[in-house]
Amino acid sequence: MNFIYLAALLLSLAGLATIDVRFKLAFAKNAKAAVVAIAIPYLLFVIWDAAGIALGIFFKGQSKYLTGLMIAPDFPIEELFFLGLLCYTTLIVSTWFSRSKS
């Protein structure tokens, strides 16, 4: 049960990649621009999480679905994949909507 959440995140990322390639939305269209569009908010979210943890605002919840692997105290490895999923989803959706308006 420990890897269920991580597996779900990885499956979701694979699904986004499939949509991306199928409709040529982000990486399939311009990989350099997609890397920049994901990397900047991703790093900001990691900094945001680290600041929230340092201030005692964010903490690791207890769940049997987490792997238990930690990047830092109260910073589970799943958070890195979740932030990637969040940024990639936003890029795919915004690209899709901007393309449909044209």
Could you write a compact summary of the structure shown?
It contains 3 helices and 2 strands.
Radius of gyration: 15 Å
**What is the strand tally?**
2
**Structural domains: how many:** 1
- Helix tally? 3
**Largest beta-sheet characterization:** 2 strands, antiparallel
Give the uncertain stretches in residue-range form: none
Give helix and strand order, one letter per element, not per position.
Answer: HHEEH
Q: How much strand content do the residues show?
A: under 5%
Describe the structure.
The chain is mainly alpha-helical and 102 residues long. It has one domain (4-94). It is built from three helices and two strands, in the order H-H-E-E-H. It has helices at residues 4-23, 31-54, 77-101; strands at 70-72, 75-76. It has a two-stranded antiparallel sheet with strand order 1-2. Helix 1 (4-23) packs parallel to helix 3 (77-101) and helix 2 crosses helix 3.
Summarize the topology:
Layout: H1 4-23, H2 31-54, E1 70-72, E2 75-76, H3 77-101
Antiparallel strand pairs: 1-2
Helix pairs in contact: 1-3, 2-3
List descriptors:
102 residues, 68% helix
